[in-house]
Write a structure and sequence with these properties.
By secondary structure, this protein is of the alpha/beta class. The protein has helices at about 5-20, 35-45, 65-70, 75-85, 95-100, 115-120, 125-140, 150-165, 195-200, 200-215, 220-230; strands at about 1-5, 25-30, 50-55, 90, 145, 170-175, 235-245, 260-265, 270-280. The site of pantoate has 10 residues, from β2 and α7.
């Protein structure tokens, strides 16, 4: 497995790989890898001849400096996990390599900037789009892999790919969960044992909201009850929304199609997000 820090070096190296007609799959990560990341890697291994993973905690996507400072870091373990998973190349740029000057690039994803993650994490998608565009330009993969847990990030990246005509496919991989239903996330490492047990309530709330809604309760009531129930268990809920899964437009009533119930909540000082897809 090649470990490469420099943009120029990885670009030249992958140019060589492409010239042998190999199909390149790319998995961007911020490290602190868990089984959810490894599911992305495994899917990339199935679909491609050559798999590149980036490990880079991107400072421009953190709207909260303490979240950045506390972001888990376990680089040695990550490298071992990637090696065991059969990854071909890991890109480990440092901040100056990707941001030679303080980034001034501005993206606007319209509606997606103002709802859910866009509303509660101002500037977050600008940072994600900036770093992901850099990776797509440097690595020029044929396919890139993202997790369904970050459903709004997926919508933003799809818009970015169409908007800037990146020539690659986006592959979305279903959310991996702990036995109790908690969506796997690097931030789960920051939960205490007691909080990890409590955190299962997020997935339970999503399932209950879907079931109540499908059995005829208005979503406004479902939302109120869901938020009240989580808050009584010690969560601070930012949003619980019913959306069309393709556009993430909020809806309150149903016709046919695919929907996503999306939730973000703090447990202590750890922010957790999750979503549940269903078809009507
Ligand atoms: O989903 C993530 O881990 C990050 O947002 C990403 C896509 C690696 C960009 O920094």
């Amino acid at each position: 497995m090649q470990l490469i820090h420099s943009t120029r070096e990885i670009s030249e190296y992958l140019h060589g790989i492409r010239s042998t007609n190999q199909i390149i799959g790319f998995v961007p990560t911020m490290g602190a890898l868990h089984k959810g990341h490894l599911a992305l890697v495994n899917k990339a291994k199935e679909d491609n001849d050559f798999v590149v993973v980036s490990v880079f905690v991107n400072p421009t996507q953190f709207n909260n400096s303490s979240d950045f400072d506390n972001y888990p870091n376990q680089l040695e373990l990550d490298i071992t996990l990637l090696e065991q998973a059969g990854v071909d190349c890991v890109f480990l740029p440092n901040v100056d390599e990707l941001y030679p000057y303080q980034s001034v690039l501005k993206f606007d994803f319209g509606y997606l900037e103002h709802v859910m993650e866009g509303e509660f994490r101002p500037g977050h998608f600008n940072g994600v789009a900036t770093v992901v565009s850099k990776f797509f330009n440097i690595i020029t993969p044929h396919k890139a892999y993202f997790g369904q847990k970050d459903i709004q990030q997926v919508a933003v990246i799809k818009m970015l790919v169409l908007g800037l005509s990146f020539q690659l496919d986006i592959v979305v991989v279903p959310t991996l969960r702990e036995m109790c239903g908690l969506a796997m996330s690097s931030r789960n490492q920051r939960l205490t044992d007691e909080e990890k047990v409590k955190a299962r309530a997020i997935y339970q709330a999503l399932g209950r909201s879907r079931d109540e809604f499908l059995s005829g309760k208005s979503f406004v009531l479902v939302q109120q009850d869901g938020i009240r129930s989580l808050e009584s268990q010690g969560f601070k809920v930012e949003y619980l929304e019913l959306t069309k899964s393709s556009t993430l437009e909020k809806v309150t009533g149903l016709s046919t199609g695919e929907y996503a119930i999306c939730l973000a909540a703090y447990l202590g000082d750890v922010r957790l997000i999750d979503n549940l897809l269903f078809i009507v």
